[in-house]
Amino acid sequence: MTQEITTTDRTPISKTNAPVIEIKDLYKSFGKNEVLKGVTLTVNKGENLVVLGKSGSGKSITIKCLVGLVEVDKGEINVFGTDITKLDNTELNEIRIRIGFLFQNAALYDSMSVRENLGFTLKRHAKDLTAEELESQIIDVLESVGLSEAIDKMPSELSGGMRKRIGLARTLILKPEIILYDEPTTGLDTITSREISELILEIQKKNKTSSIIITHDMPCAKHTSDRIVILKEGVIHVEGTYEELEKSDDEWVRSFFI
């Protein structure tokens, strides 16, 4: 059962904004391996929700279910008020275009330059753009992640942090209302991780996005989260702010903050 923690030192976003994501009693198994055993959570409009959990706890599977990359066994996933588990591919794609997904490895096309990576994504969904409009949007989104100078570089010429930023630019170019971050700072040094965390906050503030951030990086969790949930044995074990969970009476919960 989820342990509820009441916010005492600030007004949570959940009290002021309606949910854009509601996951109810979500189950997913792979053969005999039960990964999700009744996950229930909400993400409110404009909120950054961080999801923590030990390796194999189902964090990444949860967000893959959320965009239909993994088919659920049972449960509801309401996004913008629509249960996506009941949609066909055409209907699901209409929802997906409103959701950005930053994969762990940034998932850039290695044979394309940065300009081509961003242009390819944009042209798939905005076929009526002129060449000038396309170029303008590419430049604008690169400026938003601080990498205008990388426009003609190939992915192989980019550092890990730059690849993350370009991956994020490719996500942002479609102006998503929800962004799903899967380990956004994995493999990065401390300074670059901090820069990515700052960028996540800038995007939230500027674009009013709602986000789920899967991470093992506690400084990232502290810096970016409005609220945190922790998965344990396939369910949400506890939720609260970083400060609340850090002071939890639950020894297992506190072990994340050591």
UniProtKB/TrEMBL annotation:
Write one Gene Ontology MF term: ATP hydrolysis activity
Give the transmembrane region(s).
none
The keyword Membrane is assigned to this record: no
The UniProt keyword set, sorted, is: ATP-binding, Nucleotide-binding, Transport
Gene3D superfamilies to which the protein is assigned, alphabetical: P-loop containing nucleotide triphosphate hydrolases (3.40.50.300)
**PANTHER family in alphabetical order:** INTERMEMBRANE PHOSPHOLIPID TRANSPORT SYSTEM ATP-BINDING PROTEIN MLAF (PTHR43023:SF6), PROTEIN TRIGALACTOSYLDIACYLGLYCEROL 3, CHLOROPLASTIC (PTHR43023)
Residue ranges of domain ABC transporter in the record? 21-258
Q: Which InterPro entries match?
A: AAA+_ATPase, ABC_transporter-like_ATP-bd, ABC_transporter-like_CS, P-loop_NTPase
Q: What protein name is recorded for this chain?
A: ABC transporter ATP-binding protein
Q: Has UniProt tagged this entry with the keyword Secreted? A: no
